[in-house]
């Protein structure tokens, strides 16, 4: 199993980015897929999740701004991030688990290498 994130970069406050997570080795529709982020000096935190049945959930700080989705044909997970703020800065990771819905990092078994997102004024 392999997860490869892309799409990170440096943007200004209010701009948008779309992160991608290309998955090989398993079908994303059979797994619970999540996005996490880690800022310098802080623990990895939950951002968004899409469960096998399509249920989605978000950290309160990104609700209304971020959207998680999956493309079955491409076996790729996405995170559309709009109206980015400085506090969104960090390394973003996608993760997968065969377990049911969960938001804790230790719930997930497979991780990508991460992609850096930097938001500045």
Please describe what this structure looks like.
The protein is 0% helix and 50% strand. With 121 residues, the protein is mainly beta.
Main beta sheet: 7 strands, mixed
Question: Total number of helical segments?
Answer: 0
Order of helices and strands: EEEEEEEEEEE
Give the low-pLDDT segments. Answer: none
Task: Give a brief outline of the structure.
The protein is mostly beta strands.
Structural descriptors:
11 strands, mainly beta, 121 residues
Compile the SSE list and pairings:
Blueprint: E1 2-6, E2 9-12, E3 17-24, E4 32-38, E5 45-50, E6 56-58, E7 66-71, E8 76-81, E9 90-97, E10 110-111, E11 115-120
Parallel strand pairs: 2-11
Antiparallel strand pairs: 1-3, 3-8, 4-5, 4-9, 5-6, 7-8, 9-10, 9-11
């Amino acid at each position: 199993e392999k997860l490869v994130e892309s799409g990170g970069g440096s943007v200004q406050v209010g701009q948008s980015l779309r992160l991608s997570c290309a998955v090989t080795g398993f079908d994303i529709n059979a797994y619970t897929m999540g996005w996490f982020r880690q800022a310098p000096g802080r623990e990895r935190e939950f951002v968004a999740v899409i469960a096998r049945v399509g249920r989605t959930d978000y950290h309160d700080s990104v609700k209304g701004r971020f959207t998680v989705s999956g493309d079955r044909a491409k076996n790729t997970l996405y995170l559309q991030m709009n109206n980015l703020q400085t506090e969104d800065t960090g390394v973003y990771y996608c993760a997968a688990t065969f377990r049911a819905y969960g938001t804790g990092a230790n719930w997930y078994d497979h991780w990508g290498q991460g992609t850096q997102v930097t938001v500045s004024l």
